[in-house]
Amino acid sequence: MRYPEATVGAVILNSEAKVLICKSNKWNHKYVIPGGHIEAGESMEEALVREVKEETGLDVFEIELLGINESIYSESFQNKKHFIFVDFICSSKSNDVVLNEEAQSYEWIDLTEIENYNLEKFTTKLLKELRKGKKSRYKKEIIYGL
């Protein structure tokens, strides 16, 4: 029997309040936020820092919980998997992304531009909620310049 897999995802903001999205073959060539599995004995925050560094080369800070979601056998993913997504919002001082083999390209985008990109549905929902202000208590000053 397979169990749900706990994962972390990072909504990374740069100094211009733009969000990093990465195109992934694993997600039907759609854009997603960086992230991955939580290893045994690793905290969620440690997993986030490690996964972001492995996938993008970026160091992140000001890490705050953004939300929890799940994907049960999504047609968007390459395999039949049940994921529990624990998503965080964080910042990076650098825009210099170095992708590993898990992503094929990346973009730094403004939240007003998300309709212009082929985002995976969970990423779309998360970024739209962030844009609408449902999650505005997290990094409000960075996202909205307040």
From TrEMBL:
UniProt KW keywords: Hydrolase
Annotated PANTHER family: ADP-RIBOSE PYROPHOSPHATASE, DIHYDRONEOPTERIN TRIPHOSPHATE DIPHOSPHATASE
Entry keyword annotation includes Flavoprotein: no
Gene3D superfamilies: Nucleoside Triphosphate Pyrophosphohydrolase
Domain of life: Bacteria
The protein's name: Hydrolase, nudix family, putative
Record SUPFAM superfamilies: Nudix
GO MF annotation: an example: hydrolase activity
UniProt record similarity statement: Belongs to the Nudix hydrolase family.
Domain Nudix hydrolase: 3-132
Species, as recorded: Halanaerobium saccharolyticum subsp. saccharolyticum DSM 6643
